[in-house]
């Protein structure tokens, strides 16, 4: 178990034992900066829900399984059931999805959250503007950004909603509200 995994496991165990949530998250490697606390909060909540020392890894495994479902839905929205099944099978056997279920680090959850952001974005495009979906997209994006700053590039995806018309401006406001809440 690497240093980051040991640290994150310890935060999960102690946070659940003391019923305390941290105010900041782990340090990032490119600068002396910390991320938001949401990643560690998820690990602590997993430990509270699953009273087992492996709870953080079980959470990451759960995200890997959910990733298969999200990829199926993305494929379904893009090109139908067959493409959804192809994406789901590729994701299920992806080395990366198997690996992130075992590495307890904050970048391990970024893939799942990014896929969820793309799914919500596609729903917005396919079904038209929806303030509710926009707000949920903002919450997920804020959670992703708090987990690791490498997800900042997804801002361009959100801004691209303007390309689809002015009717998406209220949706962008809802996205911004969701980001602020997280």
Report on the structure:
By secondary structure, the protein is mainly alpha-helical. The protein is 68% helix and 0% strand. The chain has 9 helices and no strands. The chain has helices spanning 3-18, 38-49, 55-79, 81-92, 95-100, 110-127, 131-147, 155-159, 169-181. Helix 3 runs parallel beside helix 6 (110-127). The longest helix has 25 residues, at 55-79. The two termini are 30 Å apart.
Question: What would the keywords be for this entry?
Answer:
182 residues, mainly alpha
Return residue spans where pLDDT drops below 50 for at least 5 consecutive residues.
none
State the oligomer: single chain
Helical/strand content category: mainly alpha
Relative helix content: 55-70%
> SSE order in H/E notation?
HHHHHHHHH
Distance between the termini: 30 Å
Round the Cα radius of gyration to an integer and report it: 17 Å
Overall mean pLDDT score?
89
Molecular shape: globular
- Beta-strand residue percentage: under 5%
Give me the count of strands: 0
Largest beta sheet, briefly? none
The number of distinct helices, counting runs of at least 4 residues, comes to 9
Topology:
Layout: H1 3-18, H2 38-49, H3 55-79, H4 81-92, H5 95-100, H6 110-127, H7 131-147, H8 155-159, H9 169-181
Summarize the structure in short:
The protein has helices at 3-18, 38-49, 55-79, 81-92, 95-100, 110-127, 131-147, 155-159, 169-181.
């Amino acid at each position: 178990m690497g240093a980051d995994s040991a640290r994150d496991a310890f935060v999960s165990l102690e946070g659940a034992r003391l019923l305390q949530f941290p105010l900041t998250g782990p340090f990032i490697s490119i600068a002396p900066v910390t991320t938001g606390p949401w990643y560690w909060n998820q690990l602590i909540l997993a430990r509270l829900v699953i009273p087992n020392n492996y709870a953080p890894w079980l959470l990451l495994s759960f995200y890997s399984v959910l990733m298969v479902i999200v990829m199926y839905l993305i494929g379904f929205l893009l090109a139908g059931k067959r493409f959804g099944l192809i994406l789901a099978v590729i994701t299920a056997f992806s080395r990366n999805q198997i690996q992130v279920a075992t590495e307890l680090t904050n970048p391990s959850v970024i893939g799942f959250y990014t896929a969820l952001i793309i799914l919500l974005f596609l729903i917005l495009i396919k079904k038209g503007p929806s303030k509710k979906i926009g707000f949920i997209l903002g919450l997920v994006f804020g959670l992703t950004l708090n987990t690791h700053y490498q997800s900042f590039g997804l801002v361009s995806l959100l801004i691209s909603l303007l390309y689809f018309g002015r009717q998406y401006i209220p949706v962008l406001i809802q996205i911004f509200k969701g980001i602020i809440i997280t």
